Amino acid sequence: MKRRIIFATGNENKMKEIRMILADLGLDILSMKEAGAETDIVEDGMSFEENAEIKARAVARILTSDIVLADDSGLEIDYLDKAPGIYSARFAGEDTSYDIKNRILLDRLEGVPDEERTARFVCAVAAVFPDGTVSTVRKTIEGRIAHESAGENGFGYDPIFYVPEYGCTTAEMTPEQKNELSHRGKALRAMKEILKEKLERD
User: Fold this and answer.
1) 155 φ, ψ to 5°?
2) Run of H or E residues at 77
3) Catalytic residue chosen out of the listed positions 24, 28, 66, 72
4) How confident is the model over 57-89, as pLDDT tens digits?
5) Topology adopted by domain 4-201
6) CA distances from residue 47 to 7, 40, 86, 103 in whole angstroms, order as listed
7) Is-catalytic flag, 72?
8) Burial class (CB in 10 A: 0-12, 13-18, 19+), 124
């Protein structure tokens, strides 16, 4: 049976990024939905790493012969004591649109000068292997919160996350540029190295 990687997400935007980055592993990469492993997962960890591992383990319990990956990512804003942090997806209510979430954050930073608007995207990726071992990586991208939303390419908080070296938000970058720089792109590439080693050993 061909080895598969199952990613514990139902987010299609995320699956596009994941497939682009992990394509050269030569394995089938499926979302948990595509693999028929939909399950309710309670993310009650106290860190990005813990939440990623909780998600991966929940799916690995159903699909015991696959490699299961999961990520947990979010936005930390220093001025707001690193909020929304691990609650990024649930900030202002889970069903609230990101247009509204972004607007709330921009309003909270109204009048705050650039040097105090520092922020980062954090991504932890956990892998649970068929033998029960777990590997976790964490990566970040540093930037600051813009004064206004800009860009159509990203999703989530991308339109308000400004990267000074590039002079634009992550929603104004091309998908290739964003994968190169982004917290998830970096974390997936780091995880890819772990997967390669593991696959070579097996």
Assistant:
1) -145, 175
2) strand 67-77
3) 72
4) 999 999 999 999 999 999 999 999 999 999 999
5) Maf protein (3.90.950)
6) 19, 19, 7, 25
7) yes
8) buried
